[in-house]
Design brief:
There is one protein chain. This protein has about 140 residues and is mostly beta strands. It has a single domain, classed as Immunoglobulin-like (Sandwich). It has one helix and twelve strands, in the order ββββαββββββββ. A six-stranded mixed β-sheet has the order 7-8-4-1-2-11. Strands 3, 5, 6, 9, 10 and 12 form a six-stranded mixed β-sheet that branches. A hairpin with an 8-residue loop joins strand 1 and strand 2.
Length: about 140
């Protein structure tokens, strides 16, 4: 079963947030298969023509970037689907350690060219507490 995280732009804010109140950022380890994680843009963002920025690591603001980089082999490389409106990554971690958490940043761009991102080191970046969005294995 995939973990689904919703990306929102609160009214009057200049940063996007990831809603972690549902616990979807806490991913079960599975010995049989990788666990998919999806970030979906909410309807108001889609109405504004939002898309995740391209994922190329040499871009200054890629759509996804690890802040605390996990060890090799824990996650696959992220990908974009659905016309860049859905970000996908698979959690490959089958061991009891490391568990994380691993923080990351997201960037999106609207059709008018305006860009938004989550905030590193600021509670504005997450609904439900924390400094920046996190993925944790449980």
């Amino acid at each position: 079963m995939p973990n689904i995280l919703i990306v929102k732009l609160p009214q009057g804010s200049n940063h996007i947030i990831v809603d972690e109140t549902t616990g979807q950022n806490q991913v079960n380890r599975n010995n049989q298969r990788a666990q998919p994680i999806y970030w979906l843009l909410d309807d108001p963002l889609l109405d504004l023509g939002a898309q995740f920025r391209p994922l190329h690591p040499l871009l200054g603001n890629p759509g996804f970037k690890w802040v605390s980089t996990p060890q090799s082999g824990i996650f696959e490389e992220p990908g974009l689907i659905e016309n860049n409106t859905v970000l996908r990554i698979r959690d490959l971690n089958k061991d009891t350690n490391p568990r994380g958490p691993w923080s990351y940043m997201l960037w999106i761009k609207l059709t008018d060219g305006t860009e938004y991102h989550t905030v590193k080191g600021n509670t504005v970046g997450v609904v439900g507490g924390g400094d920046s969005p996190l993925i944790k294995n449980k």
